[in-house]
Amino acid sequence: MSSAGLTTGAQAIAAAFAGQGRAALMPYMMGGFPDMQTSRRVAEAYADGGADLVELGFPFSDPLADGPVVHAAGTAALRAGATTHEVLALGRALAERVPVVAMVYANLVIARGLERFADDLAGHGISGLIVPDLPLEESDGVRTACDAAGIALVPLVAPTTPEERMARIGASARGFVYAVSVAGTTGERAALSEVFGDIVARAKAATEVPVAVGFGIGTPELAREAADAGADGVIVGSRLVRAVAEAEDPAAAVHELVARFAQALK
Amino acid sequence: MSAVEHRFGPYGGQYVPETLMPALAELEEAWVAAWADAGFRAELDGLLRDFVGRPSPLYLAHRLSEVAGRRLYLKREDLNHTGAHKINNAIGQALLARRMGKRRIIAETGAGQHGVATATACALMDLECVVYMGVEDIRRQAPNVQRMELLGASVSPVDAGARTLKEAASEAIRDWVTNVDTTHYIIGSAVGPAPYPALVRDLQRVIGDEARAQILEREGRLPDRVIACVGGGSNAIGIFAPFVNDESVALIGVEAGGEALEPGRHGAPLTVAGRPGVLHGSLSAVLQDEMGQILEAHSISAGLDYPGSGPEHAHLRDIGRATYLTVSDTEALETFRRVTRLEGIIPALETAHALHHALQPADSEVDIVCCSGRGDKDLAEVLGQA
Fold it and tell me: Alpha-carbon distance B301 to B83, whole Å?
């Protein structure tokens, strides 16, 4: 492991979490949705609206962890011709404004080759990598490649994760731990406040890096509740992707939404 | 070391969201305990005998043998209750779910045979059943949709992608992630994250165990070849498994050649042998593009219309123990009609792929073909092609 490399992405992420004195806001966007050009404007709008980090989704044909909104966005992005290469380029531009964490399904990483994919991320200034279908047992190779390239491999924990397993995942974490708030796929949900406390407390006890909560957070109020429950970061995905899908001016719509989420976390 | 195989050579594994990992561990533990439990095995064997109708016959198909110029035996899984091998797995997994206290069952289906088998097992054991099925498959396999609904299952249409088996399996996994506390996912083939490929193989192995004993009794020798169609590959791995150590027996898996061996026009990931990839939770032979996007498969037969394959098949291919090749849509259709006329058996279109290869010239005296299912479900599709 190259310790100089290891610190690069993780340090950028750590600074983004530490800089606020409050929970960091990490909006998710689907790279290339609805098309590359609009997607680049959406990325700018996230940064303008007050994102502390951005989770950048790479479209994949078979996104098992995603609910209907993000799934449809990925399908549309691929239909519009989005490629891994172009989404990486979008990431490079965005990374000049805020730290970027890539959200990439395992097969895209494996198809490129673990080392080459990690190097691609680093070469585009991207700080971290989340692979939603790569549990601890399958992650050694990717983590080694990411460590060597200075990319933080961010693991996920779920409400179903038992304590002992959570401790092992927490110890393997780079950058932050992504705590999934509910069993299920991505998507907005009405009430979550009761589950935040439990998953956040368990995840924080299991790791030394920050804990960000995601899945289901669709309103500024829920974001606030996640922060109040002790989350170091709040991830907002489907609500914003839906806005991109529905709005006449997607960039303006997500700018306003991101600003409202940021305001709620102040 | 794991209690059941997680890897077959480099293939297999558990590429699933974290939420499912504890459920897979629970499933593996329950499966190992059940399989070692004489009471569970006795109940399963009793149902396979009295409800499914096992053992299925090993039938010397005289007229096909004449055409082939060798003795050609059919392992008659088409005579099972519900008309295919799928029931062997569905009954076993439904028993397991009941033992685990999971009262809700989900399944994916392509041709509808696994959906019908699962709906049947759920009716038998009074379990709630939801079957995910692509809209295109609902169209081409209408009789099976009606059967599932009659059996009390709810058929949930999947409108994503090419609206076939791949999307149905993805949607079933999403349901499982959401309802994992109450729900068991009865996967229909020897695919998916560990422990499924080994679990499904062990439940389908009854096909090969019976066939091996039957051929020894009938012929006093092992067959030269065992031939089966491969979508995900559950009937094939079930009949191959007991013959793997019999080195004189050639194991041949027949994939869907579709319209042509070009991207998007076939269902033959093992034959085209591209880079391995991850689909539905395991690493195996997969149809994908340069970036790693999974490609749509194509086959006239809904059960073979799948871009992935069981990880153990990929391993058997790599070590040279089994051979995989293709039969096209046209050839399968022609053999479907030919076998029906010659032998009085209407095979499933999936099975017709294996039969077509078995009828080609070969240096063999005794073959066993897994007659994995019957073709009543395919009549509309076949007659529509006329």
Answer: 16
